[in-house]
Amino acid sequence: MLLSRDFTFDAAHNLIHYHGKCEKLHGHTYRLRVVVEGTPDSEGMIIDFTELKAIVNENVLSRLDHAYINDIIPQPSAENIALWVWGELEGRVKRENCGLYEIHVWETANSRVILRKEDMIK
After folding, report:
1. Known catalytic residue: 107?
2. Is residue 18 classed exposed, middle or buried when 0-12, 13-18 and 19+ CB atoms within 10 A define those classes?
3. Which structural domains are found in the chain, ordered by start?
4. Which of 19, 66, 98, 102 is catalytic?
5. What is the Cα–Cα distance from 121 to 19, expressed in whole angstroms?
6. Is 43 strand, coil or helix?
7. Which of 7, 34, 46, 57 is the most exposed, fewest CB within 10 Å of its CB?
């Protein structure tokens, strides 16, 4: 079973190792989806939505929202942001009955990256 919660944050970045308009400083309203895979526990939940929200707020959004992401993530492409988010959340959402399954990062309404558990095993 999969459980997900969506979040948004506003941030600025520039891609210094890219040649095109994104190498200039600009911002986005990012959308983030955190997907957890597991089986319901004795309370009938994979993970409490409120707990997941608190974990993401404390460990990701508090650092990225209204930030210059280059100060946190070198070359902050959507791909590298997804990898960073995975690293911040994987151990914090792991339970006996569940674990992190996917991270989605939308840089625009039509452009996103999906990072899956199997991508991290390689």
Report:
1. yes
2. exposed
3. 2-121 (3.30.479.10)
4. 66
5. 31
6. coil
7. 57
Active site residue 26: no
Q: Look up 98 and say whether it is catalytic.
A: no
Chain segment 57-85, per-residue pLDDT in tens: 999 999 999 999 999 999 999 999 999 99
Catalytic residue, from 22, 37, 88, 90: name it: 22
CA dihedral 64, 114, 79, 36 (to 10 degrees): 50
Q: Which of 28, 98, 102, 107 is catalytic?
A: 107
DSSP 8-class letter at 61 = I
Please provide the average confidence, as pLDDT, over all residues in the chain.
95
Q: Check pLDDT > 80 for residue 91.
A: yes
CA atoms within 13 A on the CB side of 38: 20
> In terms of pLDDT, which residue wins out, 23 or 96?
96
